[in-house]
Amino acid sequence: MTQERQETREEEVARVRSYLASQAMRRTSQQLVDVLREAQQQFLAEAATISDADFRTIPEEGAWSAADVLAHMCAIAAFDERSICGVIERGEQPGNVADQLEHVPASATRAQMLADMEAHRERLMAVVLHTS
Fold first, then answer.
1. Alpha-carbon Rg of the chain, whole angstroms?
2. Less Cβ around it within 10 Å: N or C end of the chain?
3. Residues 64-123: pLDDT tens digits?
4. Helical ranges in the chain per DSSP H
5. Collapsed DSSP state (helix, strand, coil) of residue 94
6. Are the CB atoms for 74 and 120 separated by under 8 Å?
7. Following DSSP, what letter does each residue of 28-44 receive, concatenated?
8. What sign does the dihedral 102-103-105-108 (CA atoms) show?
9. End-to-end CA distance of the chain, in Å?
């Protein structure tokens, strides 16, 4: 029986970046935006299936609640907007992503997190489309 070597975090990031770069080179700006919009819609549809009662429930020790996942998606949307727009508009090298579980503050609402994520995605897509 062969054991596969566990990919390090750095290797995983490099692999994902390479994949994303190859996809970006094969697609137009409009196609990239269309894919992002579709992924966003799929995420929103899944998020809508989670009841308010379950939204902040942590399923097991060390796991993420749906609220934590949504907060993480908001943080990634903000990071994507800063990083990708920085590359496009100013040629800046993106920074590193904090890859850790941070529980969402009790004051953060689902509606506000969804609105924030949508705003970040819309600004990003506007910049991407403007460059084409």
1. 17
2. N
3. 999 999 999 999 899 889 988 888 888 888 777 766 767 788 899 999 999 999 999 999
4. 9-26, 29-48, 52-55, 66-90, 110-130
5. coil
6. yes
7. -HHHHHHHHHHHHHHHH
8. positive
9. 50
